[in-house]
Amino acid sequence: MALPPKPWPTGLCEELEPLVRRVLAPNASPYTFTGTQSYLIGTEQGLTVLDPGPNDPQHLAALEQAIGSAKVTAIACTHTHRDHSPAAAPLAQLTGAPVIGCGAVIIKSDEPRADAPFDLDYTPDHVLEDGECLAGPGWTLTAIATPGHTSNHLCFALNESGALFTGDHVMGWSTSVVAPPDGDMADYLASLDRLYQRDDRIYYPAHGPAITKPKQLVRGMIGHRRQRERQIMRLLEQDSHELAQMVTLMYKGLNEGLIPAASQSVKAHLLDLEQRGLVARSGDIWSAI
């Protein structure tokens, strides 16, 4: 999806529905669309700030202004990529609210800087389990474990309105990147299927517009991943390939800056197919079985 024309509502507090407001961070990029969207959920008497975003003074000032005199009872994160959780600590210091949400990620891997996209300073006061709730006057947020994009990813359902905050698991502008070793394609597809079984009214993602036809989009995303899987199998049934060769053949005309993300997703598919006994590798060469 192409970027919408400027001006974007960066730093502005937008009311989306009675219990939900949104503030866009100034961190637009090829991976974040127009930026990370932080959500303020609740009322003056009790408010959760979801995905506070990057530790950026301009964004923190915008969040402080949007909070105003409201009582912040929790700061929650869907996951700990650097565009989502670094503002949690300074916002907690500012408001006195605890950081409650996803757990921290610890990556055990021989890959160089496998933890680079993550906020390694993230320290939650309480980690929400699947199905556990945050609540305030007139609202309840239920945590839904949705691993795949990251192992610690949570979505949050606003029970009173039928809204689901989907973080990066389902976005309004692009499919998610699934980057091993922490990202896992089998988990990602299982999490998509879990959301497909739900009846949420609307999705509010961390990037891109609200999703008003959730089931239709999720069904399309599952279909897209299965299509990629079939594409990989066709290539490997014709000949063995290195990962880089496969990406070149599969993503013709792709923006050069997005090639690393495409490579990670293809690798995630290959690892899933390997686990299922459909492909094998010898060194850097992948082959169909």
From TrEMBL:
Pfam families: Lactamase_B (PF00753), WHD_BLACT (PF17778). SMART domains: Lactamase_B. Gene3D superfamilies: Ribonuclease Z/Hydroxyacylglutathione hydrolase-like, Winged helix-like DNA-binding domain superfamily/Winged helix DNA-binding domain. Keywords: Hydrolase. InterPro entries: LACTB2_WH, Metallo-B-lactamas, RibonucZ/Hydroxyglut_hydro, Sec-metab_biosynth-thioest, WH-like_DNA-bd_sf. GO terms for molecular function: hydrolase activity. The keyword Nucleotide-binding does not apply. Residues 35-207 form the Metallo-beta-lactamase domain. This is MBL fold metallo-hydrolase.
